[in-house]
Predict the structure.
Amino acid sequence: MQIRRLWACLLTAFTATAVCAARFPNAVEKQVLLSGPAAVQVAAWFGLEGAADSSLSLPLGRGDAWAVYLLKRDTARELSNDNEGSPPRFNAVVFSPAPNPSLSISPYWLDLATRAPKPQAGYFSFSSPILSGGLEQDEPWSRLVRRFKAGPDWRDGGAAPARRCAADEAGVELCVELFPAKDYANNRDGYQVVVTAHAASR
């Protein structure tokens, strides 16, 4: 009986350690701003081109949206998980071509310094919902993936089919990376887009 109790304690301790070793990053509110040619380049990835100011709204993935809820806790009744009506969240991408091109993304990012394992101080990210593999939806994330698929750097069957980065003269770098993902709710393969920035707070 004592041996059984000992094994139970060891197993509990091991399980707790394994769970605590992985940590989803905290959400923060911040703006990432690119300027100059890098802003024009990233704007084109998102389909924001032309002589006039333009913008679009990007829905955040489920895990990111829940992290934002934990930051804001802005429902009438506090939620215990994201199946209880966690509000959808969106990031705004705003492009201004003149007089000096600029592109901003705000307000929600995940602070990768707070994740485990492999924290990355000074890096921030957010991700898309899981997109249908057919990319038939006419919404900003699917249109971005279709643009990437049409490019020469697309790699079918890879762990990351495409990755593009742009950096401005101030040293702000933004990368957009695509990953294969499984849509378990609809039992089909798809994609997820991750946007990562290495930039100081503005």
